[in-house]
Backbone:
């Protein structure tokens, strides 16, 4: 593992074991469904904000032997992504430490650029889209899937748990992010000059006992972690007492017969003219 | 490596190899031929973050 100080101090999700477990659930088949039909052998793909590479490996596989490049600001994530690609035998995949708003690639190199839950966290959406557009060929595809925190849910409503989503949104925004990016993608793509923009929305849903258990554990460990609670109370978005009430409500929710949860996302595909 | 450019000025990068294993550069650096910024390669991973974003 590469040891270095985090290059992304304001990345809301952080790099905890809990969050890595949520990322472990991701794959190109489930999380880049909107893009996969557009991929074929030989295309050159950029995955920016690739994290530990769970989606990357499926994208690399879809375009083999085409060149796949993954970029993330965190060296520890790039380390994991490389290991995942090597384990899968995807020797067309290359990973670099880099930033979406200052990409280290020549103009017009890629056929496809992809990101998942990345524009949600980048303060200047247009700067990122402009830079990605620069490295795309004319006719190249930009694809993104981003959170819509306002549409995320845990049901049945137990106690006053729903306002916790607003607090999560407030935390993302306080860190410079865009908690509703998934429903703003179409406008953002059009503003950046992409054409023939296709927009859809979907949920990552948690309905089985195992999935409910996982989501409960993830929220318990991540949202109630001392650093998150400290950040939220520090920003003055919520109080310690509210966190205590939400934890009780979350524990109660898990044991409800009708427990069901969903993370909402918007997806968008656009073309560089 | 041919497709990589300086993330800041988009100039061409020149590779310096310090150590390599099985044709892979393990440590070294990429130096921009336009603005002279140096980007380190450590553990076979090039760090192409702009200098002001490095941790």
Residues:
């Amino acid at each position: 593992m590469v040891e270095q100080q985090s290059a992304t101090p304001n990345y809301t999700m952080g790099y905890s074991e809990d969050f890595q477990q949520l990322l472990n659930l991701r794959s190109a088949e489930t999380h880049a469904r909107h893009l996969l039909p557009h991929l074929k052998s030989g295309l050159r793909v950029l995955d920016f904000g690739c994290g530990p590479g769970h989606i990357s490996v499926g994208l690399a596989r879809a375009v083999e032997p085409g060149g796949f490049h993954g970029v993330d600001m965190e060296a520890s994530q790039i380390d994991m992504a490389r290991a995942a690609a090597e384990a899968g035998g995807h020797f067309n995949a290359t990973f670099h430490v880099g930033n979406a708003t200052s990409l280290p690639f020549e103009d017009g190199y890629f056929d496809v650029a992809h990101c998942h839950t990345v524009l949600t966290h980048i303060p200047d959406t247009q700067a990122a889209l402009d830079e990605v557009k620069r490295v795309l060929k004319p006719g190249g595809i930009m694809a993104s899937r981003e959170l819509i925190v306002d549409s995320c849910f845990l049901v049945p409503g137990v106690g006053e748990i729903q306002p916790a989503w607003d607090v999560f949104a407030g935390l993302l925004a306080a860190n410079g992010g865009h908690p509703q990016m998934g429903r703003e993608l179409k406008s953002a793509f059009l503003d950046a000059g992409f054409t023939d923009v296709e927009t859809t929305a979907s949920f990552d849903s948690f309905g089985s006992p195992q999935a409910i258990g996982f989501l409960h554990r993830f929220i318990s460990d991540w949202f109630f972690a001392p650093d998150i609670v400290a950040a939220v109370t520090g920003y003055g978005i919520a109080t310690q007492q509210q966190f205590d009430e939400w934890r009780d409500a979350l524990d109660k929710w898990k044991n409800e017969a009708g427990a069901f949860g969903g993370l909402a996302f918007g997806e968008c595909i656009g073309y560089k003219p | 490596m041919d497709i990589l450019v300086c993330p800041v000025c988009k100039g061409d990068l020149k590779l310096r190899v310090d150590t390599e294993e099985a044709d892979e550069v393990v440590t070294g650096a990429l130096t921009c031929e336009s603005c002279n910024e140096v980007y380190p390669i450590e553990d076979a991973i090039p760090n192409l973050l702009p200098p002001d974003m490095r941790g």
Q: What stands out?
A: The CA atoms of residues 3 and 12 of chain B lie 9 Å apart. Residues 13-53 of chain B form one domain.
